[in-house]
Amino acid sequence: MNTKSLYPRRRHAAQSLSVIALTLALLAASAGAQNVMERAQPWPIPARIDVCTQKAPDPVPVQRKWTVGMWDFPRFEVNALISAPWRAPLLYESGPQGREVNGIRLYREEDPRVLDWHVYWMTKYGINLIIWDWYPHKKPDGTLDCSEAINSPLEMGFLGKAKTGGEPVATNRFAQAIDFVVMVTDHGPVASPDLPAYIINNFLKQPNYFKIDGKPLVVFWDTKELADELGGVPQAHKYLDDFRAAARQAGFPGLFLVPIVGNTGMPNESHITQTKAEGFDGGIGYHYSGAYGGEKHEGLDENQVKRTYRYQDYLPVVIPGHQKVWDLLATAFGDNYLLSITCNQDWRGGRPGGPVTVGRPADLTKLIQAGIATVKERKLRPFISLEAWNEFGEGALVEPNIEQGYRWLEAISAGLEGITTNKAAEDVK
């Protein structure tokens, strides 16, 4: 397919435009423009939703035979929305507290009304688990700090806590609607002695915290980060053992601990060996775009800086690349590998280089179907995770947005047909 993009032209036009003008610009561009995902905007642009005036419908809980997890990156990357404003979400807040970037109204990530819409959409399209990127921080004195604003969508918006890093709550309003899990995103020091107790008291004791074999699932970002921080594999093993002991003391039968095996690249034997040596129970993935190649494209951005991106077509590159990773990790971990799927990536808006997925939402449906088939053939746990709901900076988003509307969620729903009782109904406009 022709992968020529008019993103620079659209970016130049959109940066000073209101949402209405941006919408008109996208419509005007649709006749001749070609975007990497598909011809730009030949479908109707859905109306935006003001959380101040439009209440989300009640969630539609999904049956639990299969677990379909969605990764949630709980922070706008404003620079990405400046560079690629057509990715702006359909949701916005009109009130005085609402945010605005270049005339485009946005929402506050911690606003409970936003989470109401997110959970409604997730459950409506067959998702029954949120996997939250959660960012704790170990201070120089070894104590734990969980007060960073990036954690507010989970702790305040979803759980209903009074403040981020504050006292735990007994339950949350989504307890009967959707399960959740946290990933300890250890992009810096996290292994405080206080970390296990915080996770147990604030998250694991929630009635809708997700469990495998009765054990709460906790994800760590990367196989090697914990060992690097603590000084070696034995130290990491002991830390995880102590975490499990604390969970048992709190009344749980243990923990099911997994890391992102191989980070975002192709896992190799050293990643697998170290994961097992540290005492993790299995493995999971975030996005796999670094595990397969793609066609290099070079060009100038809006500042005339040369950038290089890897265009990765679903059919010849992305789906076979996933299959290679799935087969490797299923062989290494058996049914303790929790199969993971990269929905889409487009780093052109927020990164100086990286992957760009080429294809259509219908191709994502095929990828999900291939993943489900692998779970069945390999006799893995009936679990898949999808990355990501809202990683705007990496163009990894299925949250309803100005450019794509609900099309990615519809593609997910189509891929899940047969393993969930939910069927996408008419969108609330």
How would you sum up this structure, described in words?
32% of the residues lie in helices and 18% in strands. By secondary structure, it is α/β, with parallel strands linked by helices. The chain has a single domain (7-416), classed as TIM Barrel (Alpha-Beta Barrel), CATH 3.20.20. Strands 2, 6, 9, 10, 11, 12, 13, 16 and 18 form a 9-stranded mixed beta sheet that branches. Strand 10 (211-212) and strand 11 form a beta hairpin.
Structural class call reads alpha/beta
Contiguous low-pLDDT stretches (5 residues minimum) are 1-17, 24-41, 423-429
CATH topology name, in short, is TIM Barrel
Number of helices: 12
**How would you state the average pLDDT, rounded?**
87
Taking Cα atoms only, what radius of gyration do you get, to the nearest Å? 21 Å
Q: Give me the CATH architecture, please.
A: Alpha-Beta Barrel
The major β-sheet equals: 9 strands, mixed
Describe the global form.
globular
Give the N-to-C terminal Cα separation: 32 Å
Helix content: 25-40%
Total count of strands = 20
Strand content: 15-25%
Number of domains: 1
Name the CATH class: Alpha Beta
